[in-house]
């Protein structure tokens, strides 16, 4: 009796098969679409607010202070919102939280438009801090849908990192386009509409929503105090500083070379390298110690961050773009592996809170890196080219903390009540 031989595993099939498996559960595509729509405003709000306030009030200092206050408020409110999501469920908390944030964005538009006192801008933008961590909620859904498939969860973390990269690349571009092509308030208004629409679509997919854990499951130490979390969050802060410094210094360097309009395109090349690396990383079946893999990724990122410094010294924007492309290929694997460690160290009942802490640490680092990179680009004798020392200087502490902070023999164990998939 003739038998049918299995279809050959082609490179294309090897690339797509993990993602086909990832999106196989019913409702996975639907909640992903809603999540992406809701996540895009995360890359829009800051740029849109700066352009709107600076355009109407004529002060970049005021615009920066307002957005900085919003970031500080997010650092405080974000983990609290995530804790409520863990306790009461995604749909019950995310929708009103997003609605409140959208109202804050609308209030900011009105305050700017009506020439309200400056303090009202701070209050209105601070209200947007209730924006739920859509990336964290999406990762929690993947962890629930593929709770018995370690490989699929790895692919999910890779996909989510690529989604983050694309949203933070496309968001600012869309905001700038809307504010310049239409009217100064268009970016903020569009962001508020997208946020609320995306959250409603996301929350409507109830069959993929993780069940709410019993109240007693959420008790105990806060995620920030769990073993291994402090050095992990410190690494996220340093990594965020790398991202923030790299962005500002690259824009300043492109402007110094007389190609200021090309700065965004050069940054897009760096993000593209990270996105491609993230997609490829998601097709790889990881094995061995996660913490060892994390140390290797952070060390590789620190080493590759020396390339933009050399590229800038060449004086060629094309050479700089090539070095940023290569350097960017280490950032996605670093973030994917870091998020995997966050998931492994955080109890399921407080997973959203744990991942929101990671995002908050990353945003704090981005803010600090942006400030340091801007100062260096303006004040160092070598100008913006020498300011690429800042990303190098912030990547090195990330590597040191990662190498020194994860030497516990129990570093790969999951949090209480969750077994490692490798030991099942």
UniProtKB/TrEMBL annotation:
<dbReference type="Pfam" id="PF07690">
    <property type="entry name" value="MFS_1"/>
</dbReference>
<keyword id="KW-0812">Transmembrane</keyword>
<feature type="transmembrane region" description="Helical">
    <location>
        <begin position="28"/>
        <end position="53"/>
    </location>
</feature>
<protein>
    <submittedName>
        <fullName>MFS transporter</fullName>
    </submittedName>
</protein>
<dbReference type="InterPro" id="IPR011701">
    <property type="entry name" value="MFS"/>
</dbReference>
<feature type="transmembrane region" description="Helical">
    <location>
        <begin position="60"/>
        <end position="81"/>
    </location>
</feature>
<feature type="transmembrane region" description="Helical">
    <location>
        <begin position="294"/>
        <end position="313"/>
    </location>
</feature>
<feature type="transmembrane region" description="Helical">
    <location>
        <begin position="189"/>
        <end position="205"/>
    </location>
</feature>
<feature type="transmembrane region" description="Helical">
    <location>
        <begin position="354"/>
        <end position="373"/>
    </location>
</feature>
<feature type="transmembrane region" description="Helical">
    <location>
        <begin position="319"/>
        <end position="342"/>
    </location>
</feature>
<keyword id="KW-0472">Membrane</keyword>
<feature type="transmembrane region" description="Helical">
    <location>
        <begin position="385"/>
        <end position="406"/>
    </location>
</feature>
<keyword id="KW-1133">Transmembrane helix</keyword>
<feature type="transmembrane region" description="Helical">
    <location>
        <begin position="261"/>
        <end position="282"/>
    </location>
</feature>
<feature type="transmembrane region" description="Helical">
    <location>
        <begin position="226"/>
        <end position="249"/>
    </location>
</feature>
<dbReference type="InterPro" id="IPR036259">
    <property type="entry name" value="MFS_trans_sf"/>
</dbReference>
<feature type="transmembrane region" description="Helical">
    <location>
        <begin position="93"/>
        <end position="112"/>
    </location>
</feature>
